[in-house]
């Protein structure tokens, strides 16, 4: 006699998870909870720290703690990765921040395709740095998208969007941690219902226009003090923790011979100091227990910590005790 009891547990889908950094660990746990997780694919161990010792990706460490087999292919060549995955016989592959482009042979291998957890409200911020770009642009909200992957860069149809506000002084690093957990929760809810979910929507049907989230580079960290107070604040928090916002201090003020001093800047927000009439962008008005107060294009920015080359992060008051700012000194004018 056939058992038609609707309360019987749903069979878990056979799954492979692909991911590498800390951001992907909550997603790994969601797949482990809701699927029959057969295999985890992560990037190879990389040299890290001063000793340049090999360090495993966070996903590898977490997967081994769960007792799930892990493979770390050095190259994703056509046909080889798909062959590696076939033995696991996945019905679904879940990808979160794996860090490599997948070929059509992998995307089409599982019955239900490959599902990606992307840290933005697609189609806005497709690409490598969606979290940082959202903060840098002063977006009021962001979120995660559960997307069926296609051959393009974050262009596939979307199963679900889940939004969350961005704090006015929230850094990219803090938002990374929050979205990692948030993304794991959203993925878990999705997998608990899958495959009994509505079909994914083409991104052309979603609100907003496609915007590319280009990868950051160190040069982009330089602060442009001529922009608005809000823009400077967003820049400092968006570049935290990497590459970190920075500004130049001229050799005379920085007490370095012939070379500008590069100061890294973190933390802070809108200053309660008034902008004097005739003050210039980048002008340091002073330091106090709250930080360093610097003129922007239309207001004053408070910087919570500074870091000189070869030194630790410190309060601006402590830095200025040894490297005092001259009256009327402006940042960002020297040639590095």
Automatic annotation (TrEMBL):
Entry GO MF terms: methionyl-tRNA formyltransferase activity
Catalytic activity, as annotated: L-methionyl-tRNA(fMet) + (6R)-10-formyltetrahydrofolate = N-formyl-L-methionyl-tRNA(fMet) + (6S)-5,6,7,8-tetrahydrofolate + H(+)
InterPro entries: Fmt, Formyl_trans_C, Formyl_trans_C_sf, Formyl_transf_N, Formyl_transf_N_sf, Formyl_transferase-like_C_sf, Met-tRNA-FMT_C, Met-tRNA-FMT_N
Top EC class, one word: transferase
EC number: 2.1.2.9
One term under GO cellular component: cytosol
Coiled coil: none
Keyword Transferase carried by entry: yes
Domain Formyl transferase N-terminal: 28-187
Binding site for (6S)-5,6,7,8-tetrahydrofolate: 120-123
Domain Formyl transferase C-terminal per the UniProt entry, residue ranges: 215-323
Alphabetical list of Pfam families matching this protein: Formyl_trans_C (PF02911), Formyl_trans_N (PF00551)
Record's keyword terms, sorted: Protein biosynthesis, Transferase
Family: Belongs to the Fmt family.
Function: Attaches a formyl group to the free amino group of methionyl-tRNA(fMet). The formyl group appears to play a dual role in the initiator identity of N-formylmethionyl-tRNA by promoting its recognition by IF2 and preventing the misappropriation of this tRNA by the elongation apparatus.
Database matches in PANTHER family: METHIONYL-TRNA FORMYLTRANSFERASE (PTHR11138), METHIONYL-TRNA FORMYLTRANSFERASE, MITOCHONDRIAL (PTHR11138:SF5)
Name of the protein: Methionyl-tRNA formyltransferase
Organism for this UniProt entry: Plesiocystis pacifica SIR-1
Organism lineage string: Bacteria, Pseudomonadati, Myxococcota, Polyangia, Nannocystales
Gene label: fmt
